[in-house]
Design a protein that fits this description.
The protein has 241 residues and is α/β, with parallel strands linked by helices. The protein is built from 9 helices and 9 strands. The strands form 2 sheets. The protein has a 6-stranded mixed β-sheet, with helices on both faces. The longest helix has 21 residues. The N and C termini lie far apart (42 Å). InterPro entries: ClpP/crotonase-like_dom_sf (IPR029045), Enoyl-CoA_hydra/iso (IPR001753), Enoyl-CoA_Hydratase/Isomerase (IPR051683). Belongs to the enoyl-CoA hydratase/isomerase family.
């Protein structure tokens, strides 16, 4: 059943997924995660671009705690199923989308919100955006968030954010490699639309080739990446004839 806190809008080849729970900072719960996963895993071949947006002043202030009460004494399997599996499934689903995924970030992006911004292929941030991984304030190792960022953000950036728990401004996040571009808050929507127009000007097969390379090539040896690049380019070009 779709979550009422996730609004999905299809506009031709563009799919917008909006976190729509502004009264609590768009905290992600299990139903919201499931709605996002269902959307991005059932895209048809005409989709060229997915955007993750938010309503209200903040992108996402984290995750609604799924922890059982302390007196419940849950088993490790229960904790894995209820606590750890849902966010990992969400991150994996976004990584696996066949076309580019863009996050449009304003306000606070904390914990899971920071991971959502980082796991997308492009993160466009307003100049008032703030990023933080703060789980260790509760003595919780944020390895789930870290799993979304490793390979996409420099290891030293992840280590600093996790261990220091310091907030990064949008400019600091840009310099640290967490976001792709910072724009004035007043023009964030216009900049996001302009970026979408640029991407949508390309064919779906070209965008899928770029996404495949970005997703798989970093794990390949140099020779393998070169061969993969040639294969993807030839496949995309052949679609024109």
């Amino acid at each position: 059943m779709p979550s009422p806190h996730v609004a999905v809008e299809r506009n031709g080849p563009l799919v917008d997924i909006e976190l729509n729970r502004p009264e609590n900072g768009n905290l992600i719960d299990a139903a919201m995660s499931e709605s996002i996963i269902d959307t991005v895993t059932t895209l048809d071949d005409d989709v060229k671009l997915v955007r993750i947006l938010s309503s209200g002043p903040d992108f996402c202030k984290g995750r609604q705690s799924p922890m059982p009460p302390k007196d419940a004494k849950p088993s490790a399997e229960t904790l894995r199923r209820v606590v750890t599996a849902p966010p990992l499934a969400l991150y994996d689903a976004l990584k696996a989308v066949r076309v580019p995924v863009v996050s449009v970030v304003r306000g606070e992006a904390l914990g899971v919100g920071c991971a959502l911004a980082g796991v997308c292929d492009i993160a466009l941030a307003s100049d008032d955006a703030v990023f933080q991984i703060h789980e260790m304030e509760r003595d919780i190792p944020p390895t789930l968030v870290m799993s979304a960022l490793i390979g996409r953000v420099p290891v030293k950036t992840v280590a600093h954010m996790v261990l220091s728990r310091q907030k990064l401004s949008a400019t600091e996040a840009l310099h640290a490699g967490l976001v792709s571009r910072v724009v004035p808050a007043a023009s964030l929507n216009a900049e996001a639309d302009a970026l979408a127009d640029t991407l949508l000007g390309c064919s779906a097969v070209t965008l899928r080739a770029v996404k495949q390379f970005l997703h798989l090539a970093p794990e390949m040896p140099a020779s393998g990446a070169s061969g993969f690049a040639a294969h993807l380019a030839a496949t995309a070009l052949s679609a024109r004839f």
